[in-house]
Every structure is written in structure tokens, then in C-alpha cells.
Amino acid sequence: MQVDDALIDKLSRLAMLDFDGAEREELKADLQKMIGFVDKLKELDTTGIEPLLHITSAVNVLREDEPKNMLTKEEALQNAPLHNGDFFLVPKVIKKDDA
Question: Is the pLDDT of residue 30 over 90?
Fold first, then answer.
């Protein structure tokens, strides 16, 4: 695949980005290098090799979610600038339109 001005125009239109002359040339060179790398990978013989879905065979290597060192409600609210004893009070951020 050849990277030309038409391809850059199409990609910039799809991404809603504007490029000046120097940026266009740099982008063309970078895209050509990426496509060249993928083309180089196509030369490898992959017959008999299963496609990978994950890099490792490890499944869910995360620890169990166990509650520890929990704050009491009073401890959590003690440094809050505004609270009503049960909840944090914050300024209203959603405004309704009267229309």
C-alpha cells in the first residue's frame, strides 16, 4: 500500500484533523514505515501456528477483592468541607433547561 496525499486527505477528513505541509510529510513517512513493518510481518511463515487471543496463558491474575482497613462513616466525613452527617454535600453540576 502506498501512502499518498489522497490517503492523508481521507484520513485527516475522517479524524477531523488539519495538517500543515511539514506535518503531512512527516505523517506520510510514519504511515509508510508502519505499513512496511506490517508487510514485513506478512513474509513470516505462520502455518500451523494458532492465533493468540492473549499474550500469556494466565487467566485473571488479579488478587481477590477483600475489604480491609475500611473507614467508618465518621472518619470518611471528618475532612469533608460540607456534609450532613450521612453524605458528602457537593455543588449542583447538572442544570435543567427551562425550555
Answer: yes
Amino acid identity of 43? E
Say if residues 39 and 2 touch (Cβ distance below 8 Å). Answer: no
C-alpha torsion sign, points 66, 72, 78, 84: positive
Residue with the bigger pLDDT between 98 and 23: it is 23
The C-alpha cell at 62 is: 488479579
pLDDT, one tens digit per residue, over 67-79 is: 889 899 999 999 9
Cell digits of residue 94: 447538572
Q: Label each residue of the chain as H, E or C.
A: CCCCHHHHHHHHHHHCCCCCHHHHHHHHHHHHHHHHHHHHHHCCCCCCCCCCCCCCCCCCCCCCCCCCCCCCHHHHHCCCCCECCCCECCCCCCCCCCC
Residue 86 to residue 38: CA distance in whole angstroms: 57
